[in-house]
Amino acid sequence: MSFLPKDYKVPGSSNNYMKFEQGENLLRILSNPILGWEWWTSDTNNEGKEVRTPHKVKEEEGVPMDAIDADGRGVKHFWAMVVWNYQVKKVQILEITQKGIQKAIRALEKSKGWGDPKNYDLSITKTGEKLETEYSVMPVPPTELDKDIVKKFKETKVDLEALYKGDDPFKGTTEGHKGSEDVDPKDIPF
Prior knowledge:
The protein has 190 residues and is of the alpha+beta class. Helices cover 13% and strands 31% of the residues. Strand 5 and strand 6 (90-96) form a beta hairpin.
């Protein structure tokens, strides 16, 4: 018998946002995404320290010209959605700005064999670092979502629209899950 269980992993951050770790990242999408544009600005706070601030607007809204850098970059298209992160066993928000991941999930959603990605788990594998980072997306055969995950999802209040205002999506809502539209209980695939 070993000191720790064979499949033991040191718990990750208790953060409310999922970040892709090296290796396999297993998740279940629990909500429809909100879509938009994101850019960052740098300001100096009262203590003289540089503070970076994210800015988000809805997909159909305009992006200010000063958000785009001299090379025509600086603004990224994002998807934000509520997910179940199997590694930390927690409801979190996942923001996806990587075009390759977006294209892979969109292709799965459009395929007749897979369809709505809320109906199955996704394995997103991250390899490499910095400019050499690559991601692969694999669907996991559909299974019914565990009842404990469903319960935690229903108990966790998330207002994705708060991201557009720079507010905390986990605070200030008692209306339950909101995204690009209010979630109708009959739309939840579990």
